[in-house]
Design a protein that fits this description.
CATH architecture: 4-Layer Sandwich
Oligomer: single chain
Bound molecules: glutathione, fe (ii) ion
Radius of gyration: 18 Å
Helix content: 10-25%
CATH superfamily: Ribonuclease Z/Hydroxyacylglutathione hydrolase-like
């Protein structure tokens, strides 16, 4: 089996891992889950992370074919639109992004938002296969964290985003609009049915106990060491997940990020003064600090 070259790029501000996945035979590559930098205090947007990825691609003489997202992120802006503008590569995400668009169209009261996924070049469905150079990539719908989440299985490497984190860090939350702990359990079981030595690349690492950031594990390691799966039943997992989720505040940027990410990372259009604005719905989400 052709093993892709995988480079991870860690964003310490959001604990996100961005990947460049390259075909060792053709030098074709894909970017997965690139981050557009955003400082909510100043409202400033920057492209340092995306530019570092472009530099890596240039330095290694790779050819960018795909800009992939695993799901519409709730904690950072996607740099998909920016990278497409810079490179012309195609953007893609899972087809159920349309359902996520409908949820957030209502929250933002944007009846004019096209909820057909037309903001991306390609929408993948479960089981679909495409290529990064000579590396076949199989798409696995893996909902739970969001309705639209997909895992990219590229050769012996699976990009599992926010399903399982590193084995010492359990699993992703399932309490966003459209999230489901049972669906997350089922998606995790599908991932764990991949061969034992499949390289698993996670979407976030929050450095528990102050250790260095890590993002690669294997199916065997997850089965043995991750307390959210080792020895767990579906019922116990759902109880554990829902109990933990009820204690988690919403991500700092969820209301900033979704309005950008349901448009493939394109920022809102500039108003007549040339400035772009975000929209903040009030009282739309549960999980306030005062518990309402
Ligand atoms: N403190 C972070 C939390 C981000 C967050 O909720 N991350 C999601 C993935 S998008 C998650 O699953 N977190 C699990 C956890 O915090 O236990 C923030 O405010 O951005
Ligand atoms: Fe996420």
């Amino acid at each position: 089996m052709l093993k892709p070259d995988v480079s991870g790029f860690y964003d310490p501000r959001t604990g996100s891992i961005q990947y460049v996945v390259a075909c060792p035979e053709t030098r074709a590559c894909a970017v997965i889950d690139p981050v557009l930098d955003f400082d909510e205090k100043s409202g400033s947007v920057a492209t340092a992370h995306a530019d570092a990825i472009l530099k890596h691609i240039e330095r290694h003489e790779l050819k960018l074919e795909w800009i992939l997202d695993t799901h519409p992120h709730a904690d950072h802006f996607s740099a998909a639109h920016y990278l497409k503008q810079r490179t012309g590569a195609r953007t893609a995400i899972g087809e159920h992004v349309r359902d996520v668009q409908e949820i957030w169209r209502d929250i933002y009261n944007w009846p004019q938002l096209a909820c057909d996924g037309s903001q991306w070049d390609r929408l993948f469905c479960d089981g679909e296969i495409f290529r990064i150079g000579n590396v076949p990539v199989r798409v696995m719908h893996s909902p739970g964290h969001t309705l639209a989440s997909i895992t990219y299985v590229a050769g012996d490497a699976a990009f599992i985003h926010d399903t399982l984190f590193m084995p010492d860090s359990g699993s992703a939350r399932a309490d966003f609009p459209g999230g489901s702990a049972i669906s997350l359990w089922n998606s995790i079981q599908r991932i764990l049915s991949l061969p034992d030595d499949t390289r698993l690349f996670t979407g976030h690492d929050y450095m528990p106990g102050g250790r260095e950031p890590l993002w690669e594990s294997s199916v065997a390691e997850q089965r043995q060491k991750n307390p959210h799966v080792a020895g767990q039943s579906e019922r116990d997992f759902v109880a554990l997940r829902e109990a933990r989720d009820s204690t988690l505040p919403m991500p700092k940027l969820i209301l900033h990020a979704l309005q950008v990410n349901i448009r493939a990372g394109e920022l809102p259009p500039a108003e007549d003064n040339g400035r772009r604005y975000l929209k903040m719905p009030l009282d739309a989400l549960p999980g306030s600090v005062w518990g309402t």
